[in-house]
Amino acid sequence: MAQLQHKVIVGLEIHVQLCTKSKMFCGCAVEFGAEPNSRVCPVCLGMPGVLPVMNKQAYEYSVLTAMALDCRIPTFTKWDRKSYYYPDLPKNYQISQYDLPLGENGFIEIPLESGRTKRIGITRAHLEEDAGKNLHTAGNFSQVDLNRTGTPLLEIVTEPDMNSGAEVRALAVELQRMVRFLGVSEADMQKGHMRFEPNINLAILKDGVEYRTSIVEIKNLNSFRALERSVNHEEHRQLDEFLDTGKVMKMGSKTTRGWDDEREVTVLQREKEEAHDYRYFPEPDLMPVKLAPRWLDDIRSHMCELPLKRQMRYVEQYKLSDYDAGVLTAERSTADFFDEAVEAGGEPKRVCNILAQTGLRKANEKGCSIAQLGVQAIDVAKLAQEIETGRINASSAKTIFEEIVKLKANVFSRATVEDPLTVQRIAEQLNLIQKSDAGELEAIVDQIIAENPKAVEDVTSGGKKSKKAKGFLLGQVMQKTKGQANPKVVSEILAKKLG
Ligand code: ZN
Ligand code: MN
Known about the structure:
The protein has helices at residues 56-68, 165-182, 224-245, 293-300, 307-318, 322-328, 332-343, 348-366, 377-389, 394-409, 414-417, 422-429, 438-451, 453-460, 464-480, 487-498; strands at 4-17, 76-77, 80-83, 93-96, 103-111, 117-129, 133-135, 143-145, 152-158, 194-206, 209-212, 215-218, 254-260, 265-270, 281-282, 289-290. The protein has 499 residues and is α+β, with helices and mostly antiparallel strands. It folds into 3 domains: 4-294, no CATH class; 307-429, no CATH class; 438-498, Arc Repressor Mutant, subunit A (Orthogonal Bundle). The protein is elongated and about 95 Å long. Manganese (II) ion binds next to loops. Zinc ion is lined by residues 23, 26, 28, 40-41, 43-44, 150.
C-alpha cells in the first residue's frame, strides 16, 4: 500500500462592496433593487468624452479596512485601466489599481474551532469599480442592468495560508464581521456585497515524494456555505484526479471552475487561463492619490476595536464563554449595547446572560439586532441588578425583557419604554418581585412545617429521603407565595428551623 498524505492549500480573493451613497467615479446612487438602468449617467454608461471623479469616501473606507488588516499603506497610489470586453461594463475597461495597491503585506487573525487563532497573510487590497449584471431570464435573449456598474469594490487578496474549508469559511465570516464593525460595508451576502474566489490546490506526499496539483480557481461564490463546501469538494476531487491520472501542476496553468449549488460539485469552465492581455496602463483621466499625513490620521481616527479582539477581551476581562462573547460581538451594535449596559452598572455576566439568551432569541424572532429590540441598555442593567439583589429571579428577568419588547412593538406605549422605572413598574405590575423579607417568609415556612409533619420527619431524620423532602417543603412555600418567595432565603430559613 502506497503511503499517502495530503494538504489542501487555499488562497482567497474577496470583493467587498463598500456602502458609499454614490458610485466610485460618478454621482449615481448606489442602490440595490432599483428599477434596471435607472441609476446610471454618462460616466458609468461609458459615454465618450466624460471624466471620472474619485469618490473620496470610498477611498477612505478602503484605507481604513487596509489598516484594520494591518497592511502597509503607501502614501502614493494611482489608477489603472484594465481592458476587457463584456456587455456589463460599457466602457470596455475597468478602472482598478494594478501595480500600486492602496494596501499590502497585511494579515488577519481568524478564530479556529480549537479556540486558538490563526494568522492569514493579506497580499494586497485595492479599490476598483464593479461591473453591471447580465440577466438571462427573459426569452432567448439576454438583458443588462447597469445600475451596479461603477459601484466601489474593495478587492482583498490573501496569501495561500488556509488549509481547510472550515478555515476559509472562518476567514470570510471574520472579514464580514470586521467590515461591518468598521462601517464600510453592509456585507449582506444576499445582496452580493461579498463575493469570494478561492484558489485551491493540494500538496501530496506519496512514498516520500511531494507532488502539487494544478491550481483551480472557483469563480464568484456568494455564500459562506458554498465557499466552504466548494473548497471541501475541490480537495477531494483533486485528490481523486491525482490518484486516477497522476497529473501534477504545470507551471503557469490554472483552471477555472464554477460551483453548482444544486449538485454540490465544481464544474469546469476554462481548462487553461488564456494569457490574458488586460493591457493595464495608468488611467489618464484620474489624478494619482497622495495620502498626506493629516488625511491618514483622519482616516485612522475612525478605527475601532476590532471584533475578534473585542471578543477575546470579553472572555479575558469578564470571564465570559467564547460562545457568549461571540454572540455579543457578532454585531457592533450588540457589543456597544452590552458595554453600555455594563457601564450603567449591570454585572457583565448577568447582562451577557440576558442578552445572549432572551435577547438573541427575541432578535432572531423579529429578524433584527438585539439593540433594535427597543429595550434600553439601562433596562438591562436594571434587570441584572434586580437579579443580583434577589428582588427578581432570572426567569422573571426574561419575562420583563419580553414585556418591554412587546411594549416597544406597540407604538402607543413608546413613551413608557423610555422611562427609567420601566423595569421596576413591570416587575410590580406582573407581581414578579420576590419576597425576601425573612420575617414574612418565616411565618409562611412555619405554616408549611406545621402542615407537613411527614416531610419534616424525613428531613430531620437525615439519610436519603432528606434532600427530596427539603425540596418538597421549598416547593410548598413557593406554591403558597405564587412563586414570589426568594428560594435562597426560604432555603436558609428551612435549614435554620430543621437543623
Ligand atoms: Zn453614473
Ligand atoms: Mn477584481
